[in-house]
């Protein structure tokens, strides 16, 4: 009986490792995409600064969050993805402010 438990643990451990490697690959893709998003956000911030527009655009952020909900057809994860995107939007705004301050120094 002990052998079955040990074999299950070894198999589970291998499956966990494989799943973690998949997560690591996905994390790399997410980081690459977020870097590209920050580059686009930097350009938007520059254009807003040139046009004397505020960094915060509540209607745009609402639109982004609604789009995220539409893109995710799993009601169990929609609110979690929206929370993640709220943080992305907040950090994009902070990055735009940082770049504007850096440019004005």
Task: Give a brief rundown of this model.
It is built from three helices and no strands. By secondary structure, it is mainly alpha-helical.
Structural class label = mainly alpha
CATH superfamily: Chorismate mutase
How many helices in DSSP terms?
3
Radius of gyration: 21 Å
Principal-axes geometry comes out as: elongated
**Main beta sheet: strand number and arrangement?**
none
Q: Per CATH, which architecture?
A: Up-down Bundle
Question: Could you name the CATH class?
Answer: Mainly Alpha
The number of domains is 1
The fold-level CATH name is Chorismate Mutase Domain, subunit A
The beta-strand count equals: 0
Order of helices and strands: HHH
Query: What does the oligomeric state look like here?
Result: single chain
Percent of residues in β-strands: under 5%
Distance between the amino and carboxyl termini: 71 Å
Which regions have little confidence, pLDDT < 50, spanning 5+ residues? none
Mean pLDDT over the residues: 92
Q: What's the helical proportion of residues?
A: over 70%
Domain Chorismate mutase: 10-100
Organism: Lentilactobacillus kefiri DSM 20587 = JCM 5818
Pfam families: CM_2
Protein name: Chorismate mutase domain-containing protein
């Amino acid at each position: 009986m002990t052998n079955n438990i040990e074999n299950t643990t070894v198999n589970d451990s291998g499956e966990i490792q494989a799943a973690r490697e998949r997560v690591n690959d996905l994390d790399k893709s997410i980081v690459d995409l977020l870097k590209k998003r920050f580059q686009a956000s930097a350009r938007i911030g520059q254009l807003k600064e040139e046009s004397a527009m505020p960094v915060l655009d509540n209607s745009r952020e609402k639109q982004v969050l609604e789009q995220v909900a539409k893109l995710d057809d799993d009601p169990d994860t929609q609110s979690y993805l929206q929370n993640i995107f709220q943080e992305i939007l907040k950090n994009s705004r902070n990055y735009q402010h940082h770049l504007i301050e850096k440019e004005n120094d």
